[in-house]
Structures are given as structure tokens and as C-alpha cells.
Amino acid sequence: MLSCDFRRIVAVAMVFATAFVTMPVSAADFDTTKSVIGSVSAVGPVELRGIGISQEGTLFAGDSIRAGHKGYAKIVLGTGSKIELAEKTDVNFNRDAQGVKIAMTTGTVGFTAMSPLRIDVMPFEVTATDGAAGNVAIVSPNAAGVRAISGKVTIRNLKTSESFIITKGQERLLGLKDGVHAPSLAEIASNVPGPIPAPPAPQAPAGRTSGGLAMDTGAWLAVIGGAAVAGLAVWGLVVAMNNRDDIQDLKKTISGLSTTNARLVNVSNTAAIANTIAQLQSQQNQAALLATQAQLALTLSGNAAGAAQAATLVAQANANLAALGALLSQAQALQAQFASGGGSASQLSSLFSSEESLRATSNTTATGVNNLLTTYRTTPNVPTATISLVSAPPQASQTTP
User: Fold this and answer.
1) For the segment 313-348, what is each residue's pLDDT rounded down to a tens digit?
2) What stretches in the chain show pLDDT beneath 50?
3) What is the pLDDT of residue 266?
């Protein structure tokens, strides 16, 4: 009797075990590794997934990023698109079959879309692609603004399915509660090609650059070259006293080292100029973003004069960015020439003069934005940041024996 009951119990257990083992299991029942969307570079207080980051981090689908007071974040997506977050900006990144999607809560987002990119400012969805660039700013709990810097940007009301397109230099004010949108604001910087610049990586200290031969390395090479020239001159004097027939050979050697030293100094000086230009690009990008925020806030408050002043500053900043981009290319080309034994002192002098002229213009624009923000600091949603001025690049003199 016990044997029969035991066999029945074993049979029932085997049935349940077989059913459990062969039961289909969904992949959703297991944790999966989140897909990587891109990378984040931070300046100032920036949080990724609620944790502060000092420099760089990896961005996954579902991640949130928050740029705090005087914080700035740059995101480079795997598709090539670039996103910039101004201070006090809170966003969430995700990805679906249609591409990357950004949900905005507060702040200002700048974008350059190399592939389909969507930015949700509920109830609106802003879509950009094909290299389109622009800004989206939430200026109050009830309103947001969208500006197209280049290309075309599509704005769709997700509740009513109404959609419209804005093109280079056009703007729209969006009502976040009632879903209405205002006609295009006055076009700004219509003659200036002003896509969001690449980069703002963290500003390098004066005398250091992120590309080519670093400024501090070039300076050390110049010092070492100068010391070698001076040392060889002393040594040459001793040898000449013992054997005057070697004087001519020593002079040729010293002359050759002097030429090498001059080339290293030129490389170092060109690198310093390129570094200053990069700092000015970062400065003017910040100026354009802050002036855009101020313009939208002043427009909503009914201050047409203040909004027009802000629009002028945005145009100036974009014009400066275009000129700085062209000048940086010249500096990098001249640095390469010096490194390979080419280039001339007149080219370096001309580059330095052009940089100083643009530095003065850019600092004037930055001062104008600072004054604007101070003047209208009591207006709701006008940012409170201060833009730093950029100093002249250090220029080393050539060491001679």
C-alpha cells in the first residue's frame, strides 16, 4: 500500500517539475543590460542618474541628467547628434524604434541633430534631423520657446496632432497648459550661419590645448632647446680654445639648434592662440544660450525693448562663433606648418592680431549679456549666470645663444 502511494506522489511531482521546466519564460522576466546611447561631459555641478559627475560619464537609455546652478553638460550621441544642457536643466533620455527621445522638465537644451531626434515639452514634441540645430527653453511652468538656428524643426501638438515647421532664424512660443502657440517672433541672426558649436568641452587652463602639441609641452621643449643652445655655446668656446679649427663646425651646429628652438617656440605660441580661440568659442556659446533664455523670458513679460536687446546679443554671439571657427582652422593649419618646419613669423603675427581683435569683440558681447542679465534680473525666468572674460594668450620669445 505504501509502495503504491509513494509511486503516485513521485508521478505527480514529476508532472509538476516537467511543466515548470518547459514553461516558456519571457525575456522581460530577466534583467537586461541597458543600451548605451552616448557619452556625457560635464562642467560644474552636473548629475547623471542622480549622482554627481566631475568630468565624463556613459549615457544609457532611461538615464536622467540634471545641470545645476552654473552647471553645463554636453552629450554626444552614438548617432553623431550633439546635445547641450544649460544651467538648471533637467532631462531624461530614452530610445525607441524611431530614435532617441528627450523628455524636458526644466531649463534650456541646445541640439544639433545628425539623425532623428525628438524633444518632448508636453504637450508638444519637437523633432529635428538632417543636421538641423536649435534651442528649446522652458521659461515658465506655462510656456516654452523653440528656436531654429539651422535647417528645419518640426513641432507637433501630441493632443491635437497639429504640426508646423520653423526654419533658420524662426521662433515659436508654446503654451504648455492650453497647447496654443504664438506666431513666429522676429527673425534673429538671419544672415549668420550659427549651428550649435561642437563642443564645449571643459575649458582648458590658459597655456594648454586639447589638440596637437600641448602648450605646456611646447613651452618645456622651448626651454630645453634654449638650454641646449646655451650649453653647447659654452662647450664650443672651450673646444675652440684648444682647437680653433673646429670653430666653424660649432657655429653651424649652434645655428641649427637655434633654428630648432625657434620652430618649437612658434609651435608653442600657435598652440596658445588656438587654446584661447577654443575658450572664446565656449564663452560665446554660453552667451548665445543665456541671451536666448533672457529673450524668451522678456518676451513673455511684455518687455519688447529688452527682448530686442537680447536678440541682438544672440546675433552677435553667433557671428563671433562663425568667425572663431574659421580662425581656429587657420591656427591649427599654421601649427602643423611650424611642426613640419614651415610657416613664418609674419603668419604668426597676423594670426595673433586676428585673435586679439576677435577676443575684444567676444568679450564685449559677453559683457553685454552680463549687463543684460543684471538689468533684468528681477524679471521672472531671466537667468542669473555670469560669463567670464577670456585673457590674451601667452606668447614666448625665442631664446638665442
Assistant:
1) 999 999 999 999 999 999 989 888 877 778 888 899
2) 1-2, 15, 19-32, 184-241, 250, 253, 257, 399-401
3) 82
What is the phi/psi pair of residue 397, to 5°? Answer: -90, 155
Tell me the pLDDT tens digit for each residue of 372-393: 999 999 999 999 889 999 999 9
> Helix, strand, or coil here: 244?
helix
pLDDT of residue 307: 93
CA pair distance 182, 160, nearest whole angstrom: 16
Q: What Cα–Cα distance (Å) separates residue 107 from each residue in 72, 141, 271, 282, 377?
A: 11, 11, 35, 19, 17
Q: What is the pLDDT of residue 14?
A: 60
Percent of the chain with pLDDT over 70: 69
Contacts 24+ apart (CB under 8 A), 332-341: 332/211, 332/212, 332/274, 334/270, 335/212, 335/213, 335/267, 335/270, 335/271, 335/274, 336/212, 338/263, 338/266, 338/267, 338/270, 339/212, 339/213, 339/263, 339/267, 341/263
Q: How far apart are CA 136 and CA 264, in angstroms?
A: 45
Surface-to-core class of residue 223, CB atoms within 10 Å of its CB (0-12 exposed, 13-18 middle, 19+ buried): middle
Return the pLDDT at 11: 57
Chain-centroid distance, C-alpha 382: 22
Positive or negative, the Cα torsion across 174, 143, 185, 75? Answer: negative
Strand partners, 104: 91
| Residues whose CB is less than 8 angstroms from the CB of residue 370 and which lie 6 or more positions away in sequence, other chains included | 386, 387
- The one-letter amino acid at 272: A
Find, among 373, 362, 367, the residue nearest to 295 by Cα: 373
Of 376, 384, 374, 389, whose CA–CA distance to 308 is shortest?
376
Residue 152 main-chain phi, psi, to 5 deg: -125, 145
DSSP 36: E
The contacts of residue 221 (CB under 8 Å, 6+ apart) are 264, 267, 268
Q: What is the spatial distance between Cα 208 and Cα 238, in angstroms, rounded to a whole number?
A: 39
Q: How far is CA 395 from the centre of its chain?
A: 27
